[in-house]
Amino acid sequence: MAAGAAGLWLDGAGAAAVGQAREASARLAPLVRPTVPDTFAGCREAIDGVDAAVATLLEHRVALAGRVQRLKPVGGHAGRDPRREAAIVAAMAARAPSVPVDGLARIMGAVIEAGLDAAERDEADETPVWRL
Ligand SMILES: O=C(O)C(=O)C[C@]1(C(=O)O)C=C[C@@H](O)C=C1
């Protein structure tokens, strides 16, 4: 398999490998090759592509957040660290200058809470899909 500017070339790959490669491409394409669509349908398609990448990153972030809870003296919601959360928002603000900082703080607050909720469900023996 090789990746190029226009997509993926698969030589002699089975259907499962082709499916996996398509999914990997869908997840990565919006990051490495952002599109600038000029139609309604094109915009919707591009948004769906970005959402696929966002969902992939959220899934990975939730798994990492779950892992760090198990390494902290006090994990879960009880061990929240407002200074760390503010530093996360400040670092992200530099990369998302079009999103007002208070909006970014609300978004990341929701993301962090979702991660902590998932970690506490995991503690209750509900195995998550992703576990690092
Ligand atoms: O870094 C930590 O201490 C974490 O528990 C992870 C995390 C996060 O999801 O980024 C979650 C809760 C804390 O308030 C701060 C950050």
Report on the architecture of this protein.
By secondary structure, the chain is mainly alpha-helical. The protein has two domains: 1-34, no CATH class; 38-132. It is built from four helices and two strands. The protein has a two-stranded antiparallel ribbon. A hairpin with a 2-residue loop joins strand 1 (2-4) and strand 2. It is flat. The mean pLDDT is 88. Prephenic acid (PRE) binds at residues 65, 68-69, 72, 80-81, 84-85, 88, 112, 115-116.
Task: Please provide a brief summary of the model.
This protein has 132 residues and is mostly helical.
Shape: flat
Order of helices and strands: EEHHHH
Give a short account of the largest sheet.
2 strands, antiparallel
Number of E strands: 2
Counted by DSSP, the helix tally is 4
Number of domains: 2
Proportion of strand residues = under 5%
Average per-residue pLDDT, rounded, comes to 88
Instruction: Spell out which ligands are present.
Output: prephenic acid
Distance between the termini: 27 Å
Strand ordering within the main sheet:
1-2
Stretches with pLDDT under 50, minimum 5 residues: none
Radius of gyration equals 18 Å
Structural class: mainly alpha
Helix content: 55-70%
GO molecular function, one term: chorismate mutase activity
Organism: Jiangella asiatica
InterPro entries: Chorismate_II_sf (IPR036263), CM_dom_sf (IPR036979), CM_II_prokaryot (IPR002701)
Domain Chorismate mutase: 34-123
Essential attributes:
single chain, 132 residues, mainly alpha, 4 helices, 5% strand, binds prephenic acid, Chorismate mutase domain-containing protein, chorismate mutase activity, Chorismate_II_sf
